[in-house]
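Our consortium's second objective concerns turning raw sequence data into structural hypotheses that experimental partners can test. To show how far this objective has progressed, the report includes one record in full. It was chosen at random from the queue rather than selected for favorable results. The single chain below, 515 residues long, was entered without modification.
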Amino acid sequence: MPVGLQATAASASLVLLSWQAASDNVGVTAYRVLRNGVQIGQASANSHQDSTVTASTSYSYAVIAVDAAGNASVPSSAAQTITPAPSGNVITATPSNYRSFLAGLKPGDTLLLSPGNYGVDANGNDTADPPGLPIFNMHGTAAQPITIKGPDGGPKPVLLGRGTHNTIRFSNASYIVIKGIEVDGRDLGGFGVSAAGAVHHITLEDLTIRGAGGSQQNVGISSTGAYAWNWIVRRNLIDGAGTGMYFGNSDGSSPFVAGLIENNVVKNTIGYNVQIKHQASWGSPPAGMPTGTTTTVIRNNVFSKLSSFVSPDGARPNLLVGAPPPSGAGAANGFEIYGNFFWQNPTEGLFQGEGNIALYNNLMVNGSGTAVRIQPHNGTVQQVRVFNNTILAAGTGISVSGGQAGTTQRVVGNAVFASTPISTSGADAQQADNVMDSFDNAGAYLVNPTGALGSLDLFPKTGQLVRPALSTSGLEGFASYDQDFNGRARSWTIRGAYGAEGANPGWRPVLDFKP
């Protein structure tokens, strides 16, 4: 067990953690960092920086040691801290003067945008200035990010888009927080958010993005054209975009690394809700880009595609993730995808992936086709763990194929109701300890699998998904692996995304933010 944990609030947006190294007879290889009882990260050394905190807030931290055999210690004693109020200047701006303040923002400053329509004059005509937020060569620091935000309550400022420009434009920027703003692209062809150059430590939070549709090529949030790392994309609503989020580039350039995509709602897109592209070898990445092994986390989101419209570019899944670089820096990077609600796709699967993937504790419903397809796309299928998901699919529930030699793929502990529940193939692809039945028989196991959103309830009926305790060997290193879809401690004798049975104590899935 780690001892001596200390938590220091270095700023309103940064907590520094340190502890004494732990040891055992096998050798400690990692530390899981918990905040208020929920895992937020993993460290290989005895320190961690939490840059996802909010000003003037109390936090409690603990650390768990994990050894080379996957054994986890009990949590350390807790360490508490309170983040201070923001430092720097708070500058209140209006649609008529906000651009005059942008270039002068310094680390720690907050630009507070008043409600109103930005990019048009009092008569509703487009202004002569380019629209939106050009964030060029702007840098905060880890301790003092630059924040551009709307009011904490009430109407949001609305950035009106144009076909000539993307609306929020990053170029060579870092430690920037964009929060509480609405982007209305007016379906004129511009992206909601775009990036170029080296763009890192970006937080996009509580944004509403509409009107970025018309074509699958129009994107709500994009990093195409940038080396992007340590982005936090949190609690945003993207409704009606061509593609909701597109990170990376189709040729494998513009790597997106160490991202956190959480608690978003992405719906009514033409193409992908979210796509993170495969990566070619990085060559010479910018200074500061993490070159060791990192994980991109996709958790607690709602992904929905109800339209049967297929663009000329072809049908697309709700979420697609690509393989890491084939060699060199970043080659062992992967994804942890958990706690998400995937709802319908009339023309494609809900999830497609390759590379290093952990997919767990998700609810997935597709009344028209496949739920999960893991197969080579532009790269290779590598280390894959698909566990403790509850899946309803009219077609195939889980398909895993094409694993690269020397890698393993495991499908365990799932509850799958589909015409073909699980299909695995390859040299070392295995399935075990799953509950499987037909799509039509899901009602024998789940409380209300045919209900409309709001009454839909995929919680297990008492006794129906109970099986011998699932071995957690090889699962312990994944964030929140031992918590179910509701974020509660799970029983390992119950299959699927929930760790209990009977009456559901948690959220009923709807197309809104997961609590």
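The partners drew two points from this record. Residues 98-102 form the longest helix (5 residues). The radius of gyration is 23 Å. Both points have been shared with the crystallography group to help prioritize constructs.
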